[in-house]
Write a structure and sequence with these properties.
With 343 residues, the chain is an alpha/beta fold. The protein is 40% helix and 15% strand. It is globular, with a radius of gyration of 21 Å. The chain starts with a strand and ends with a helix.
Length: 343
């Protein structure tokens, strides 16, 4: 059976994960169609609609546009079901990030309707399938499967480029650089990370915070810490694909002290770049740890400790073995899952 799968959003969306996901399906011969939203998918000839972030309808719009967007999505899903299209949701998060109480009044009935209408769901590691079922009552009896979060294609850079990058920020070759990379948001624990680093006495340690930030209150707090500790370096701007890669590769250790996390593309990116990661214990990080080992993933329980800045070392191997994240394997597994829903 030839399958046509609509991806909402599609490969043209500015997100590396979605691109890798669509690529994984294409390795199996699946025809992938980029979908702008479920309502506009009604006119498409697809067998499956695969959704990634249903909360996308709430991004960057006000309350009433959010409500209208949610209603439009639900109508689109209902019509697609009537047409016989199977609907699959990748549960990236248990709830939208940094969501306030007012927003949750919209989210709860909306996601209840979405989970009622879907035919199956996906998570990104083995341990989170049951967690998703426990969180969303409508998933309890629906088919679910995990497809490992795919690895990323990280460009290689020479030792000279690494040295140039460090010089740009006043970092010596012998200094050990701990890096937080990615969009800076309150739930990611960056404020706590800086507070811990401020307690470290070693003058050869550096902490670089690199990525875009839109929370002005948090930005001001980070700048205050950096103003009194020259070891703390802020690079608060959007990073292009090349900038992201050279920043990761020029660091020694990547620190991701999320307050809460269900899955994390940042961990996968760091490992794909061949950089060890310090991050809290979670079902996702623990599943990864079982594959890559303690040399590459330092998983801690409880609050982040300044001790982590003293013990982390680069592994002897150039990169971790990430074959288990192969897009070929995940694409084949996704196709089997789609076929099970369509027959």
């Amino acid at each position: 059976m030839t399958l046509s799968v609509g991806s909402w959003p599609g490969a043209d969306f500015n997100n590396a994960y979605v691109g890798r996901f669509c690529e994984s399906l294409e390795t199996t011969g699946i025809s992938v169609v980029s979908i702008l939203d479920p309502f506009r998918a009604i006119s498409k000839e697809i067998d499956v609609l695969h959704m990634h972030w249903p909360e996308k309808v709430f991004w960057g719009v006000g309350r009433w546009k959010s409500a209208l967007g949610a209603l439009t999505v639900l109508i689109g899903l209902i019509v697609l079901k009537i047409k016989g299209v199977k609907i699959v949701w990748t549960v990236h998060n248990l709830e939208p990030h940094d969501s306030g109480n007012k927003f949750m009044w919209f989210w709860r009935p909306y996601i209840w309707g979405v989970t009622l209408l879907i035919d199956g769901f996906v998570t990104l590691c083995p341990s989170t399938v049951q967690i998703a079922r426990d969180r969303f009552a409508n998933l309890a009896l629906k088919p679910g499967v995990f497809l490992w979060h795919p690895d990323y294609k990280v460009p290689e850079y020479s030792v000279r480029k690494r040295a140039e990058w460090r010089k740009k920020f006043g970092i010596g070759i012998a200094d050990k650089v701990f890096l937080f990379i990615g969009q800076i948001r309150p739930y990611k624990g960056v404020k706590e990370l800086i507070e811990c680093f401020a307690k470290v006495q070693d003058t050869s340690r550096r902490l670089l915070i690199a990525g875009s930030i839109y929370n002005e209150q948090l930005k001001t707090k980070l700048q205050r810490y950096a103003a009194v500790d020259s070891r703390i370096i802020l690079h608060l701007q959007y990073l292009s694909e090349d900038e992201l890669a050279i920043t990761a590769l020029a660091a020694d250790v990547i620190v991701l002290p999320f307050r809460k996390s269900f899955h994390s593309g940042s961990i996968i990116y760091a490992l794909s770049a061949g950089r060890p990661v310090i991050t809290p214990s979670s079902p996702f990080s623990n599943d990864l740890l079982a594959h890559v080992g303690e040399d590459w993933l330092d998983v801690y329980a409880g609050p982040f400790s300044p001790k982590s800045f003293g013990v982390a070392e680069m592994p002897n191997r150039e990169k971790p073995d990430l074959k288990f994240l192969s897009i070929t394997e995940s694409g084949a597994k996704a196709k089997i899952f789609y076929l099970s829903l369509c027959t």
